[in-house]
Amino acid sequence: MNALRVWGGGVYEQDLFYSICDEMGIMIWQDFMFACAMYPTEKSFIQTVREEVIQQVRRLKSHPSIIIWSGNNENEAALATDWFHIPISQKPTYLKDYVTLYVNNIRAIVQEEDKSRPFLVSSPTNGVESEQEGWVAVNPYDPHYGDTHYYSYIVDCWDWRTFPRTRFASEYGFQSWPSFSTLQPVSITEDWSYSSNFTSHRQHHADGNQQMLLQASLHFHLPNSTDRLKRFTDTLYLTQVMQAQCVKTQTEFYRRSQSEIIEGKGHTMGALYWQLNDIWQAPSWSSIEFGGKWKMLHYFARDFFAVILPVSFEVDDTLLIYAVSDLSHDLKLRAVVLLYSWSDLDPVCTLKSELLLVPGGSAVPIFKQPVDALLARCGHCTRLTCLVTFHLEDSRGQQGPTNHHFLCSPKDAQGLQRPNITAAVQEDKTGYAVALHASSVAPFVWLDVGNIPGRFSSNGFLMVSRNRTVSFNAWRPTSVAELSRSLTVTSLMDIY
Hints:
Elements: E1 3-6, H1 15-24, E2 27-31, H2 43-60, E3 66-70, H3 75-80, H4 91-113, E4 119-120, H5 128-132, E5 148-150, E6 169-172, H6 180-183, H7 197-202, H8 208-217, H9 228-256, E7 261-262, E8 265-266, H10 296-304, E9 308-315, E10 318-325, E11 331-341, E12 349-352, E13 356-358, E14 362-370, H11 371-378, E15 386-394, E16 397-406, E17 422-428, E18 431-437, E19 442-448, E20 454-456, E21 461-463, E22 467-474, H12 480-486, E23 488-490
Parallel strand pairs: 1-2, 2-3, 3-4, 5-6
Antiparallel strand pairs: 7-8, 9-10, 10-14, 11-12, 11-13, 11-15, 15-16, 17-18, 18-22, 19-21, 19-23, 20-22
């Protein structure tokens, strides 16, 4: 992850945040604090806005991490699509107020105070096209221009054809629940049910809890334990699986779209999912829980934002793999494709493509084969009995992470069984490690040490080997004994 957006519905961050981003090379899209609302334009309010903008620009413009200013979040879209049911007779007044606040004041001040950076009046916006339409476009979500926000919680998130082929995806995402250890300090026993008053009270997105289950049920069986607590924790886990897989699929679509224009749409040059962090213990779109614990999504993000990334998708029952490179120099890469049976940890077969030139800053198709031909070539495989893993390599070896492609929904997989994973915590020179052993393929292996703060080197992964070792970076003093007591290991089939 090399960019963050400071959202207009939050706060201006403190100086330390921007200094750390400067040091780490993290680019910042900086909103001004106006979001999802219509604001007044009385003289006294405008004066406070002008003082606010001047102070913030002068405070922050020396930070090289800030790459763009944005006047507001979604207020152009709110006007254009009539979020607030403004009477037609009053619409000109609201349009005039919008231009007064964001164009004549905020934009004018920023362009006077900081001539080194671009300024967007809103997000999403069509940029110059919006300006030509009087600053409020008929469709600010038009993927031909500017940036796009896109949310769809019911449509199958594994279907890449549902996503907009936008120039810049500045908001998209799916909700999940945080882990049980995050919820436990603010809840009691009677709260530990997905249908409790607690889970309803903590959910501030209309129908959010049901939407998560509906999305998950498209590809997974829902937890069915008769033990109330286990069913609750299994459901928390499955919402994180769903979120991670959904955002992965969407982000990979945007990344592989950077070198293509189809029907005038494409050249997607950025993807910022909503959202990074949480302000309380509750379901949200975040990838980091309140308190700093990583959700499965955040572990996935480390891979799907990798500098070199293999991405798979299907078109008309043909499997394609793209090599995505954000490097500044060219590479010669091939795809290495392995098929596994759901019931066996030994690969059924391994295929390799020819080395192809992948220019820096591009996405290039590197492997293409009809799924039926692929299955026939390997033998002993059907869509229901096998899955695909793949990675990229050059003459020196593997480049980038290993990825996976499910040929069917896991709920339809034949041969998928409990992997009977065992785990042993060890201490070494660098800290702690967890040695895992599995008896069969294990999707979405999740390690959790409760309220011991820290993070694993990898988590939520597909385990297609009998043995795997994962390190744990503890954020406070701990011990092998404490970690062993606290450690739980969950994979998909363990929740049924």
